[in-house]
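Key result, reporting period 2: structure in, sequence out.
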């Protein structure tokens, strides 16, 4: 018996098992639909987004790769070009681009409730995991067992991010000029410390210029050619669309601003405008608007204010918080939850310290991620209308190419700080070089990273399985007292 469509569209799967149709060996025509409703039964979509959320380790690189593998290659719910188009828009926004990409694709597949489900599930496991780890950190501090687990997880993430760079780059860099854009973006970030927004704007301008001077670079590639991924089962025209209008914009803007502001106003009313909760709510609301470039880019800004201005925690504790965020699923910007947890625990006001810590952490998480939904629901209909514009598409393709360089820069940063205890910054004219101190090399970390690389690249193990093995190796080395573990 077939599942009733939620709207006027025909669902992809049957109600018997809610399993996706097996991908055909030969190219099959995309499913066509029209009107509002779900292309994917909502329950099946929720299950898929929850499965994705449990694999989102390794920062934005790994998260984007997980979605690309699941949605483009395995499920075939969206094509590679459409995936890249959405990703390019998300890279222009402040906040965690991977979560915003999940919201965007969820909206394309299931409308507003699809975007809400995808975005919420994307961060939910990380919120729960980091709350638990923050409580353990405050209650028990660092122990040999915990240190060993982290010593195994971090090198595994290096291999996961390297795989992500390869996957995203292989699909996006289809021309030497696009490869050049990626290399230039990497050099600008890694060597010249150009700010992330400047790199993205320059890449968009370069894409537009290339389209004018060498239009053949952006000629569409036929689905199934090998460069554009497998053909999607849902045609681009069948994906969710909404006509942008002033009424719709005002409705979403008002709803989003109320959801964003009401919790902060309630906290200010009940705890006072000078309480740590009000301060954190207002501060991280502002930070959500300037977090271009991901967690690493915003970390210096957050560290300066949280340590020097507010005194919520020490510089060393922020590094510990980033390590915790890197070893839990979800966006790395979740580190702000750890910052708020410690700050509220140490300045609880009239509340119990533990209750204060959870309140501060959850409020900070709320004001950090609510804007992501607002940005996507407001902007996606306009971006969809511009999808057929050749110049806009070229600019977004240039941004997508730069994204590969951005992710590669994050991979280098993470590898340096995982394989070496100390990394020093050196300035040579306009160049800013990060030089690891060779005396602080960690051979155990390199060994575990190599094991993880073999498991992922050679044996094609899953992310979770690889992380489990590497965590066990790190724990064993720490408990055995191996130097450098």
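The corresponding designed sequence is given below.
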């Amino acid at each position: 018996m077939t599942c009733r469509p939620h709207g006027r569209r025909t669902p992809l799967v049957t109600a018997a098992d809610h399993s996706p149709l097996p991908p055909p060996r030969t190219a099959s025509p995309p499913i066509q639909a029209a009107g509002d409703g779900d292309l994917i039964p909502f329950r099946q979509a929720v299950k898929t987004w929850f499965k994705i959320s449990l694999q989102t380790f390794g920062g934005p690189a790994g998260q984007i790769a997980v979605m690309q593998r699941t949605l483009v290659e395995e499920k075939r719910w969206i094509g590679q070009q459409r995936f890249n188009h959405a990703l390019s828009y998300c890279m222009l926004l402040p906040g965690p681009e991977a979560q915003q990409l999940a919201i965007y694709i969820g909206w394309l597949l299931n409308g507003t409730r699809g975007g809400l489900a995808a975005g919420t599930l994307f961060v939910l496991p990380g919120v729960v995991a980091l709350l638990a780890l923050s409580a353990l950190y405050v209650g028990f501090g660092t122990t040999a067992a915990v240190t060993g687990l982290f010593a195994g997880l971090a090198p595994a993430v290096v291999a996961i991010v390297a795989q992500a760079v390869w996957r995203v780059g292989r699909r996006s860099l289809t021309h030497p000029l696009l490869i050049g854009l990626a290399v230039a973006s990497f050099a600008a970030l890694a060597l010249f410390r150009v700010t992330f927004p400047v790199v993205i704007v320059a890449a968009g301008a370069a894409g537009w210029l290339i389209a004018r001077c060498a239009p053949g670079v952006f000629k569409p590639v036929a689905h199934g050619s090998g460069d554009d991924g497998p053909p999607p089962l849902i045609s681009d025209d069948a994906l969710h669309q909404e006509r942008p209008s002033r009424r719709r914009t005002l409705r979403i803007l008002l709803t989003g601003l109320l959801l964003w502001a009401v919790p902060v106003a309630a906290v200010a009313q009940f705890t006072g405008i000078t309480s740590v909760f009000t301060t954190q709510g207002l501060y991280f609301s502002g930070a959500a608007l300037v977090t271009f470039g991901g967690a690493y880019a915003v970390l210096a800004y957050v560290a300066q204010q949280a340590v020097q201005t507010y005194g919520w925690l020490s510089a060393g504790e922020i590094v510990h918080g980033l390590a915790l965020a890197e070893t839990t699923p979800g966006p790395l910007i979740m580190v702000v939850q750890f910052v708020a947890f410690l700050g509220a625990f140490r300045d609880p006001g009239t509340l119990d310290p533990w209750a204060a810590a959870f309140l501060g952490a959850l409020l900070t998480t709320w004001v950090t991620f609510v804007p992501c939904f607002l940005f996507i629901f407001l902007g996606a209909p306009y971006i969809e209308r511009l999808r057929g514009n050749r110049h806009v598409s070229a600019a977004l393709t240039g941004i997508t190419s730069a994204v590969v360089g951005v992710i590669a820069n994050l991979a280098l940063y993470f590898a340096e700080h995982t394989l070496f205890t100390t990394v020093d910054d050196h300035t040579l004219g306009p160049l800013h070089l990060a030089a690891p101190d060779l005396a602080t090399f960690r051979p155990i970390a390199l060994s575990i990273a190599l094991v993880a690389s073999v498991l992922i690249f050679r044996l094609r193990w899953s992310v979770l399985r690889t992380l489990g093995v590497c965590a066990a190796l790190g724990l064993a080395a720490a408990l055995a007292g191996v130097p450098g573990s």
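Residues 97-140 form the longest helix (44 residues). The chain is about 65% helix and 0% strand. This case is discussed further under Risks and Mitigation.
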